[in-house]
Design a protein that fits this description.
459 residues, alpha/beta, 8-stranded mixed beta sheet, 12 helices, 21% strand, binds flavin-adenine dinucleotide
């Protein structure tokens, strides 16, 4: 859900796990009216998000209950550029796994203002390539205890994910992924149409529709989590370990001496650094251009939308690559729907209407039950697409400057693992075994890790 949803209810429900159990209905995010019917929540209850200035003012009050809000120090061992999920996760694991706490995360806006809270929270590990599977599987395993580790409920919910197929060719390709996953110890099943219907009763498996369902792959351990809770939990934990989280601090240049980075120039002054990690997602190329080198990243808008709130009707995540639509139901009851990216480059966090129209058309064919649902809200983020739809994690042509980007449409699920391996890389100067194949120079050597088939938009 977008930042607009990080409102009053969000803060109330994101209390430390140590605060004790919450009532089951509240925990599942249900919101029942007097007659036990779902309560439709309108913008009157979740008011229009305030302006950036007001949000930053709010952020200054956050330290009172979640994290400190310090002034930047003149120098740090490590400066991380970008206060999204991956930047925060990296800072957290630098402190937790490596004992490096003289760390700053510098963020041009407020923590989590980018894709961190604009994504649709699908978590899974059923990728195809042997380089990708271990990385995403490690992440999925970290998710299962992430909330306890952060002492902050991130609402991780492994409810299962179906990837529908609509042609023989697509079904064959999906089966191939199922077999590849199993060979790597990742749970994967193939379901025939009747089994799909059993697993998710609202899917239309009629043979008389334009794109009939030929079957689906299932990853039962896949699921969703609550993205703003992950931002809050990571920020809180990193701050408690001594990391400085500096909001409203845009990096505008780099101090590079004899081919090595020695610090960053920011809108809040110069900050010296032993090492710098770039985790700018959709704005990565702006950063690397300032540092004097190019990366093969293109920035595209990616949209999503939510319906009004319903009783729970969708027990799992369902994705359809051919129809370019995927849907899950948030704990609170909104149907959360995504599509493929808009096909033009942009840094504006908005997309075009025709994509929304075609994703709704597809959704209505697949789930006739949704024909009376209303769209409550749409939004977009800017995703950093690499040529092989895989991330870039490692060294750069500038010494002591490291890069973590290219997660494109699928980086939410990788939050724990990405931070873990990038922290290792920053701490030791060497890649972790899991990120070693994801080097920048693979675009020169040709050792590509093609994951274009990984999902609707590789989510
Ligand atoms: C609509 C949508 C749906 C998605 N759905 C899924 C999904 O279902 N599952 C999944 O796994 N992934 C999904 N993703 C992808 C996922 O959101 C991203 O891959 C991931 O969030 C990127 O990492 P991040 O959180 O660190 O990025 P961001 O939150 O974008 O963080 C980057 C940060 O860097 C900051 N920054 C940039 N330049 C500077 C600068 N010069 N100085 C200081 N700070 C700077 C930005 O302000 C930003 O806060 C989706 C993305 C979108 C947009």
């Amino acid at each position: 859900m977008p930042a607009s949803q990080a409102g009053r209810r969000g803060f109330e429900s994101h209390r430390p796990l140590s605060a004790g159990p919450v009532a089951p209905l509240e925990r599942r995010g249900f919101c029942l009216g007097a007659a036990g019917l779902p309560l439709v929540v309108s913008r009157r209850i979740f008011p229009t998000p305030p302006t950036v200035a007001i949000r930053l003012e709010h952020a200054e009050h956050n330290p009172a209950f979640l994290w400190r809000n310090p002034e930047p120090k003149p120098s740090y061992d490590v400066v991380i550029v970008g206060g999204g999920l991956h930047g925060l996760s990296t800072a957290y694991y630098l402190a937790r796994n490596h004992g490096i706490t003289n760390v700053a995360v510098v963020e041009r806006g407020w923590l989590g203002n980018g894709n961190a809270v604009r994504n649709t929270t699908v978590i899974r590990s059923n990728y195809l390539r042997e380089e990708s599977m271990p990385l995403y599987e490690f992440s999925l395993q970290l998710w299962s205890t992430f909330g306890q580790e952060l002492d902050h409920d991130v609402l991780f919910d492994p409810r299962g994910m179906l990837t529908l197929t609509h042609s023989r060719g697509e079904a064959a390709a999906a089966r191939r992924t199922v077999y590849a996953n199993r060979l790597h110890g990742i749970d994967a099943e193939w379901l025939e149409p009747a089994e799909v219907k059993q697993y998710c009763p609202i899917v239309n498996i009629s043979p008389d529709v334009r794109y009939p369902v030929y079957g689906a792959s299932l990853q039962a351990r896949a699921g969703i989590a609550r993205h703003d809770a992950v931002v809050f939990g990571l920020a809180r934990a990193a701050s408690a370990l001594g990391v400085d989280l500096i909001q409203g601090c845009e990096v505008t240049g780099f101090n590079i001496v004899d081919g090595a980075v020695r610090g960053v120039q920011t809108t809040r002054g110069r900050i010296a650094a032993g090492r710098v990690g770039l985790v700018g997602a959709g704005r990565t190329t702006l950063l690397t251009t300032m540092a004097g080198f190019d990366v093969p990243i293109q920035s595209y808008p990616l949209q999503a939308l939510v319906s009004e709130i319903f009783d729970q009707v969708l027990p799992c995540v369902v994705m359809s690559g051919a129809l370019h639509v995927y849907v899950s139901q948030a704990h609170k009851g909104e149907l959360v729907m995504g599509a493929s990216r808009d096909n033009y480059l942009s840094y504006a966090q908005r997309g075009s209407f025709h994509l929304i129209e075609s994703q709704i058309q597809a959704a209505l064919e697949l789930y006739p039950i949704m024909k009376r649902a209303h769209v409550l809200r749409t939004w977009a983020g800017i995703v950093d697409m690499s040529p092989d739809a895989s991330p870039i994690i490692g060294t750069t042509p500038v010494r002591d400057l490291y890069l973590n980007c290219g997660w494109g449409t699928g980086g939410f699920k990788a939050t724990p693992a990405s931070g873990w391996v990038f922290a290792h890389t920053l701490a030791t100067g060497e890649p972790h075994a899991l990120n070693a194949p994801f080097r920048l120079d693979r675009f020169e050597t040709g050792a590509l890790i093609d994951e274009h088939g990984a999902g609707v938009s590789a989510h």
